[in-house]
């Protein structure tokens, strides 16, 4: 778009070198007012330095927005997604994907508040995050202008970036001068790493890439047994202690971290069309998924459970691709949430050197009825003789097919 | 059916006490000729004793059929199912489900050969196996008579069974006199256990129930790294050594067993309508699934991979419910097999105390293209500027929705 | 079940010969108190004669329940189903299927009110309706006893039925003595016919079978143009006149009937396993479906519309099979209902000799934006140049596949 | 791309004004050699004039390719698609969508043959066809250069186009000087019309837009009864006369046309993100779909039929979006084709003033078994008493849910 078109832009600002360069680039290239938004999603970094740095780079105090989104993130994004048991391509717990819509939503809210006409993010032009940010922007503010510096500027190498930073007096941490051996994204749900040293999928992930979990090998030799309580599909307590959503996930993260849980080395298919190799650490989320499936196993009806399993891949794909604010995601969520009314109870789990094992489940709403399964006769609701009719009618169409085969000799 | 209607019956005969009682009960109740069929599916038991016992119980030598089905089982049943990455209710690898159709098919083949009009199995009236056996029978021989003793007889307690056995001079092993604390099923793919001591889903599985794997705790402190080779979706070699399907699965079982891999404690939904709690040990299968997903991750296109993920729950449900010989399973198999043409290559895995981790994958048909992902500019096929158009057209309908929301104020 | 077990039974009673025989058979066989329930679902029959006949057959006045369910039927069953555009096997509008759960529910409500322990229906042992009734019964009153006379009694021929009726002084209309050439079911949504003269699927449906519509040939030579208004997915007015749900459907039935609309000759797959041939007349429903798709076409987002289309076959199958009160049907309904918030507006349709054609649609919530489609340049939201990026990223994986094909020569 | 990069381009050339302008524009803008490809897909136009015009515009004779693709089109594209009963958004028979991949494939074949490095089409930048062409190009020749003039040039109004034509001595038919009131696409399967006079979806389609069918009103007052024969899912004969695929579709088109069959007025969702309103005439295809469903109704098993219905929306979406040469379309095709082995037989249909009604079906492979459906007792394979067990086991989980509701009072 024409550079002069932008009046005021809300930038997703981490305080790091790259988004600081973007900040300055916006000022110099677009000549527009820059509003920074820095969010705490549990990435484990202080937020105040971001404020100081923004001030240093000439942002007016009233244009600096800093917000702790941890509770909202877990309550309104992570938990609804875990109700779906969402897993992308059989394995990825969508830790990055689920955070982007929330950041995008907040940027738009700030844009509406301060009268900004544009938003800007620091995602590259090859990844999924640009899509996730921008679909959120466009869905919530259809007339917004979107600036994606990595797709626009000519700072196409580390050298050029550093030159630009130096030219504009942007402080550069010593370890940021050279290319990073990999890039990361972190929030309360996970840390992801990708790029450079991870790019050869035939090679193991180097040890130094992991930051969020100990290795199974160095985890304690003794298992940790915990309980997780659920109410209507959401976790509410660990070891009997009620916790807020964010506190609960943080607690599970601690438990997962020390027990070497939640590492994933994956080659995945990006929405923009290529394969990429990533490494994910999702300690608490890995426990949460196992626990949720555990409590569902006794409280969810088969019809509901199987429908959920059938819908899940599409749900996960939508989240991965950035369609959180799309009607079809909301429709699937409505179906999923409908199923969670009685997903209440307690799951006991064993954590041991990378393993999460459900070892017990109980619920006031359990559908598991020992009477029905006992091998001895006596239960009222199940009559073994019914099985014959059940089988024979289910077999009828197969028998008809068999007769056709016999009759036609094919 | 009228007892006099049955002339000759093919019994799935293990040689154990229960099927020996059934054998005798068929003779005394139906007055029919009994043909026994004993199969080696890798359950780890000698077959000759079954022959001796059948002879002892009066079966004519020409009516005793014993067959080693291990290769056919893995090649034509286990492998096709693993091409689908089939997992029932998110977790169960279908070890029992996949064996029943093959046994059923062999019984029908023998029935056709010896001119039998009936078949008989030893599955209970409360489980899934009766359905799986009988759907196979009916699909392959629509006019067959099916005898399911557990649904028919009055031997409704252990005491009555033992009395019947004693009355008919059936040898009774000492440990078979009382009720078993749990029942098991085993084949080359897995061992399942259920019943009695496992019936309370809030209680952990007792140690003595496990028979096929060591516990993660007692597994070696040092990881085992292996490679698995695939050709067109099927595993063909371990550590570079070509193996037949059954030998390969046996090899993976060994590797899994010593590393504490493949235990599963699950509450599942049976096809006959109730929940049950089972414990599964699938050491080799657990490795195989991880390896197969690993090789698919670099050789399978996204469209194919996602379609497979969407179809999988239905495929798994069909196998679980016993519809192996149904047209819809065959249709899904055709789709799945179509996708496996280039699923060829080598996966490296780390086995460690219950964990299976893919740590490397390579293939002559890899779709993973480092050039496309590299953060530096230069790749030919991917132009970052294309991302803008991609996002904007994907966003168009969301923007239109946003405009409606704004316009209507809802 | 033991005949003496039943104390009081609620019978779905039409007042016709067959259910009168059932009534008497219940009294004589089970020796139990019989409560009759006769519902008006718009089948077009007087209800008072049913009361008189019940009295005549010895039912106590307080045990006779007669209810006009037409509004509830259309509002809570037909309309929710039409929100889904539900069509079974590509063609059948589920007119019979959707009525059974409501009748079942009412029987259970009466059973709870009068303290009955059993319910009874007059559906045959070969059809779907027995399943639909009984799944509703069991879902809503899990301990209920179900009596299905057609599966139990020995009145297995028309002759025996007539004998039984004569013996018990049940009035027999002259035309009921012999076998009917076909059987019918009717309600406000449709009339179905099956059996005897329809059993050869290679033969055309005889003219005298149709009762609810004129033939296209005899319909007027001039088209009727109407409008149907919708609010949140439900039809609310015809030709601008607000109507209650039942009145609206009745109005559409009239319009459909005179224009020869809604006849269907179908071979379908029953849930109990065989194929059957039926003839359906759904005049108003056929118009309603076309109109609903018409209003959705401008008010529903593509993502929502396509998800609905993907879910529909499963939804229709659930309704057909009788799983109205199953959690998975309710989950799908939640998803569908979520999509209908803006399905509001007016559709214009032309009715002509069997054809229903949407010829206009308008809505305050229309997502159809002429600016976006116009071939000339100028629209703001759509930039033609975006199409290139859109296509290139969508093509990326296909190009990668093409490169592999070229490289490997396969 | 840089204009000088293109050496030789294969243009999809109709011989009409627009593609003639493109031809000349390619020569003048890219300075490259132009190869024309003109295909007969049954659009009903002579091909020789295209050759003459190409010569006139300076194309070398050896660079002019003209091919009759009608048989290939119907046999390898239309028929496979009809095996799937593919319908987009519940109504559209995909007549335009299915032709594009074939044209694209032929252009690529010619490009390979003549050593061209680029291909070019005349589709606009707002429609689906650009996507369909280009996905085919890229899938089959990943390194091809694609020229889409409508997205590139500055001839953005009719006036400019005419000026360009005049300047380059391109003959202009009198009626092509002004804007067309609508645009059309035609092939053996259908004619589509869109734009201008059709852009207001609240207004009826003007009579003069229809070109391929008479209106139901002007169709004969007497019905035409025909038979269509199928072999393995494909139509092979009409009224008992064997016909090649293209001849058969042409025959059905004639029958449909005179009987006013196959008109559709639709607002649809384009892949590029907006809604558009189109009018389609698919006379033969409409008959073919009805006939195919008719023969499937007696030859296809329920499991296969329902799986087909569930997969169909995704299949149709893939075809609509242009993913014909994508692995997931091929996987679905494999599943669908697998189901068609016995879809053989004869369907009788009545064509009358816009209606297509199946009135009879017969097949040597019919699964319809009158014995099974007859209301009188006697059939062997179906025992009414089996229905009880069938229902009770299907009801078991619903009863368990009911008990939970009762127990918990929720």
TrEMBL record, chains A, B, C, D:
Residues reported in the UniProt entry to bind L-aspartate: 124, 128-129
UniProt catalytic activity: L-citrulline + L-aspartate + ATP = 2-(N(omega)-L-arginino)succinate + AMP + diphosphate + H(+)
Superkingdom of the source species: Bacteria
Positions of L-citrulline binding: 92, 97, 128, 132, 183, 192, 268, 280
Stored Pfam families: Arginosuc_syn_C, Arginosuc_synth
Pathway info: Amino-acid biosynthesis; L-arginine biosynthesis; L-arginine from L-ornithine and carbamoyl phosphate: step 2/3
InterPro entries associated with the record: Arginosuc_syn_C, Arginosuc_syn_N, Arginosuc_synth, Arginosuc_synth_CS, Arginosuc_synth_type_1_subfam, AS_cat/multimer_dom_body, Rossmann-like_a/b/a_fold
Record localization: Cytoplasm
EC number: 6.3.4.5
Residues in Arginosuccinate synthase-like N-terminal domain copies: 8-171
PROSITE patterns for this protein: ARGININOSUCCIN_SYN_1, ARGININOSUCCIN_SYN_2
GO molecular function terms listed in the Swiss-Prot or TrEMBL record: argininosuccinate synthase activity; ATP binding
UniProt: ATP binding residues: 12-20, 39, 122
Main localization of the protein described in the UniProt heading: cytoplasm
Gene Ontology cellular component terms for the protein in this record: cytoplasm
GO BP terms: argininosuccinate metabolic process; L-arginine biosynthetic process; urea cycle
Residue span, Arginosuccinate synthase C-terminal domain: 182-399
NCBIfam families: argG, PRK00509.1
Family the UniProt entry places it in: Belongs to the argininosuccinate synthase family. Type 1 subfamily.
Subunit structure, interactors included: Homotetramer.
Protein name: Argininosuccinate synthase
Organism encoding this protein: Rhodoplanes roseus
């Amino acid at each position: 778009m024409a550079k002069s078109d932008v009046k005021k832009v809300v930038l997703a600002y981490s305080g790091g070198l790259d988004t600081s360069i973007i900040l300055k680039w916006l000022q110099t290239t677009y000549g527009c007012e820059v509003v920074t938004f820095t969010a705490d999603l549990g990435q484990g970094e202080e937020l105040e330095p971001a404020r100081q740095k923004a001030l240093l780079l000439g942002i007016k105090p009233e244009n600096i927005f800093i917000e702790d989104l941890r509770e909202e993130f877990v309550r309104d994004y992570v938990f609804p997604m875990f109700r779906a048991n969402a897993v992308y391509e059989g394995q990825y717990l969508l830790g990055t994907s689920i955070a982007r819509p929330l950041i995008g939503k907040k940027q738009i809210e700030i844009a509406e508040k301060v009268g900004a006409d544009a938003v800007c993010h620091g995602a590259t032009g090859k990844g999924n995050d640009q899509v996730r940010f921008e679909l959120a922007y466009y869905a919530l503010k259809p007339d917004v202008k979107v600036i994606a510096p990595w797709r626009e500027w000519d700072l196409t190498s580390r050298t050029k970036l550093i030159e630009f930073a130096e030219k504009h007096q942007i402080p550069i941490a010593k370890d940021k001068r050279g290319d990073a051996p990999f890039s990361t994204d972190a929030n309360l749900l996970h840390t992801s790493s990708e790029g450079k040293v991870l790019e050869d999928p035939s090679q193991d992930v180097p040890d130094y890439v992991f930051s969020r979990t100990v290795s199974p090998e160095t985890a304690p030799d003794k298992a940790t047994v915990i309980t997780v309580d659920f109410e209507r599909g959401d976790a509410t307590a660990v070891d009997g202690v009620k916790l807020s959503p964010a506190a609960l996930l943080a607690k599970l993260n601690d438990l997962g971290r020390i027990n070497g849980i939640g590492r994933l080395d994956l080659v995945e298919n990006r929405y923009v069309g290529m394969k990429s190799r990533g490494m994910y650490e999702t300690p608490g989320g890995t426990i949460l998924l196992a626990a949720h499936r555990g409590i569902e196993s006794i409280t969810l009806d088969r019809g509901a459970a199987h429908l959920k399993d059938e819908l899940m891949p599409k749900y996960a794909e939508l989240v991965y691709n950035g369609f959180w604010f799309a009607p079809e995601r909301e429709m699937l969520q409505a179906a999923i949430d409908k199923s969670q009314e009685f997903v209440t109870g307690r799951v006991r789990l064993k954590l041991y050197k990378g393993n999460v094992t459900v070892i017990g489940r109980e619920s006031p709403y359990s559908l598991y009825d020992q009477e029905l399964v006992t091998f001895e006769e006596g239960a009222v609701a199940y009559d073994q003789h019914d099985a014959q009719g059940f089988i024979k009618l289910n077999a009828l169409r197969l028998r008809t097919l068999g007769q056709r085969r016999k009759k036609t000799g094919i």
